[in-house]
Specification:
The protein has about 140 residues and is mainly alpha-helical. It has two domains: about 40 residues, no CATH class; about 70 residues. Helices cover about 65% and strands about 0% of the residues. Helix 1 packs across helix 2 and helix 3 runs antiparallel to helix 4. The longest helix is centred in the last third of the chain and has 33 residues. It is elongated.
């Protein structure tokens, strides 16, 4: 924005806002909404708004319970859908973390348990029965 436009807007903004405020006071819902969105920041919500604390998130069952709690808070109006979505995204991140740790541990166990075992058959002398069966084949 050029300096001239900014200076002009700055010099005229006060009377414009005064007019919007007066119309909002007179009952204009549109002007009231405009002023509220302009000057009142959106309230931040946190897990305390859920009604109870989110439990420790260490297992898939913990995550399922937390998701149910969030869905309940959204549907009851305790938190808005945007806050619920944000918290759910954090839970999904935690789920991936838990899954990665579990897969890593499982892989380590498999690698330790899958070490090749070499069995050597005892050496025995070839007997007469073995020689006969070998010649028949």
């Amino acid at each position: 924005m050029s300096k001239q436009i900014f200076d002009k807007l700055e010099s005229e903004i006060a009377p414009i806002l005064e007019a919007v405020v007066e119309r909002a006071k007179a009952g204009s819902g549109q002007d009231a909404r405009f002023l509220l969105t302009l000057f009142v920041p959106k309230a931040k919500q946190n897990s305390a708004d859920l009604g109870t604390d989110i439990p420790a998130l260490e297992t898939a069952d913990d995550l399922a319970a937390a998701h149910a709690q969030i869905i309940g808070a959204v549907t009851s109006g305790k938190i808005d859908a945007d806050a619920g979505h944000s918290i759910s995204a954090l839970l999904e991140s935690q789920r991936r973390h838990i899954e990665t740790v579990q897969l890593s541990r499982k892989l380590e166990r498999l690698e330790r348990g899958a070490a090749p075992v070499i069995e050597i058959a005892p050496i025995r002398e070839i007997g007469e029965d073995d020689a006969l069966s070998a010649s028949k084949s």
